[in-house]
Amino acid sequence: MKLDKNKNEKSSIRIKLRKISIINSAVILLLCWLLLTSTSLLFIKRYEKRNLELIAATLSNSLTAATVFEDSYDAHKKIATLGNEGMFASAKLVTDDQTVLVDWQDQQQRSGWYQNFLREWIYARPFSVNIVHAENTVGTLTLVGTVTGAADFIRYSVMILTSGMLCVLIVASLLSALLHRGILVSLRNITSSIHYVIRSGDFSLRIPESPTKEFQLFSEDLNSLLAEMQSLQTSLLRDNRSLAAKALEDPLTGLANRAAFVARLTTLLDAQLAQERFVLLFLDGDRFKSINDNWGHAAGDEVLRAIGSRLLALAYKQDLVARLGGDEFAMLITSRATESQLQQLTEEIRETIAQKIMIAEGTPITTSVTIGFAWSQHGDSVESILERADMNMYKNKGINKVRI
Questions:
Q1: What DSSP designation does 273 have?
Q2: Distant-in-sequence, close-in-space partners of 216: CB < 8 Å, separation ≥ 6
Q3: What is the distance in angstroms between the CA of the first residue and the CA of the last residue of the chain?
Q4: What is the strand order of the sheet 279-286 is part of?
Q5: Which strand (E) or helix (H) includes residue 354?
Q6: CA of 9: how far to CAs of 3, 5, 275, in Å?
Q7: Confidence at 346, pLDDT banded by 50, 70, 90
Q8: Mean pLDDT throughout 201-227?
Q9: What is the dihedral angle through the alpha carbons of 177, 180, 184, 186, rounded to the nearest 10 degrees?
Q10: What's the per-residue H, E or C state across 296-322?
Q11: Start and end of every GGDEF domain (predicted)?
């Protein structure tokens, strides 16, 4: 459960790529926003200061006569006319003898923290200009700039710029998702193919081509690896089948060995109610020790191979011939189910085995086998039917010794 939870908590590469694209776009747009905003603020500051200087210069020229004659009414009228148009926030006209002719304030001027901050930032101090007549200074005009227009301009500029940046960020995210689709498709093909191979064990699957160079090289390497694993799997299966066959095969005669014989006998006993009875034959070689002593073990091996091949020739396809070890052989006969058929088979076995066997040196060797048998019975076990066949064989061996 913990592993599943951790697996679910891990984000996909699609989400990671989207996060990377969004963060990258957001950082770039934020830097652009800061750059454009800073540039706009510096521009508006310079513009407002320059505009106030031009207004002061123009107004000072028009106030020369009123200042010389100390005509406060005319001066106030001219100043108020421009002030009411929003050219400045306040104006003060003082003569050279410090007589205040005009002290005008814009009563509609907004005064909040935003406007005060802008005013202090744009106009560090009031702007003063001398009024000159006949090369003599006759008065001083002091203006305090207005920030109403600048405040509105900055507010709307920031709103428009921010909205535009957000739209660009959304478009960039959509384009990024569209451009990443090819990468995600290639990765999905690779990962799904690998998962299929892991789950099914089928190494014949091949990863499709990718339009991306790196993924194509990766796919080719994986396909090469899958081809090698498929070849190795085929080789292992072939070797396993070969080893399994050899594990149930007698290496000398090529017949079934004791393990294969017991397995087949167990199967027949388990299914004996669904089919006709069968017979188990035990065959024990006679005078095999003397053959080894007189002609050597190589000759004894040739005799065993000859006995095995002759027994195999007498058996039908559904029968089983096995070498249990040494000169002991066994046969499971399911093709003949009567006593007369069994009698005929045992006679054929004796006659066939009694035929001369030519060993490598060209010497003929004659041998024989003692046969014991046991018919299958209901409730038989492997041990019980083997014991009956073994007892019958030793009984017949005793009879053969008496005859000799």
A1: G
A2: 209, 210
A3: 79
A4: 320-325, 328-333, 279-286, 368-375
A5: helix 339-354
A6: 10, 6, 60
A7: very high
A8: 81
A9: 150
A10: CHHHHHHHHHHHHHHHHHHCCCCCEEE
A11: 276-404
Distance between CA atoms of residues 389 and 381, nearest Å: 13
User: Tokens in use for 369?
Assistant: 């086998």
Q: 48, exposed or middle or buried, with CB in 10 Å at 0-12, 13-18, 19+? A: buried
User: Interior CA angle at 370 toward 256 and 346, to 5°?
Assistant: 75
What are the structure tokens assigned to 344, written together? 């005929």
Active site residues per annotation: 327
pLDDT digits (tens, 9 = 90+) for 240-298: 776 766 778 898 998 999 999 999 999 888 887 656 789 999 999 888 888 888 888 88
- At position 238, the amino acid (one-letter code) is R
Query: Can you list the domains of the chain with their CATH numbers?
Result: 13-166 (3.30.450.20), 201-247 (no CATH), 258-403 (3.30.70.270)
Q: And the tokens for 34?
A: 């800061």
Show Cβ contacts of residue 404 under 8 Å, excluding neighbours closer than 6 positions.
none
What does the block give as tokens for 276?
């006709």
Q: Dump pLDDT digits (tens) for 29-81.
A: 888 888 888 888 888 888 888 988 899 899 889 989 988 888 899 989 998 88
> Which residues are CB-neighbours of 80 under 8 A, at least 6 positions away?
104
- Give the up-direction half-sphere exposure of residue 112: CA atoms within 13 A in the CB hemisphere: 4
Amino acid (1-letter code) at residue 373? F
Q: 372, 391 in Cβ contact below 8 A?
A: yes
Q: Where are the beta strands (DSSP E) in 4-56?
A: none
CA 203 to chain centre: 17
Euclidean distance between CA atoms 232 and 227, whole angstroms:
9
- Contact at 8 Å (CB) between 54 and 127? no
310 close to 352: Cβ distance less than 8 angstroms: yes
CA 142 distance to own-chain centroid:
75
In this model, does residue 3 exceed pLDDT 50? no
Strand partners, 320: 332
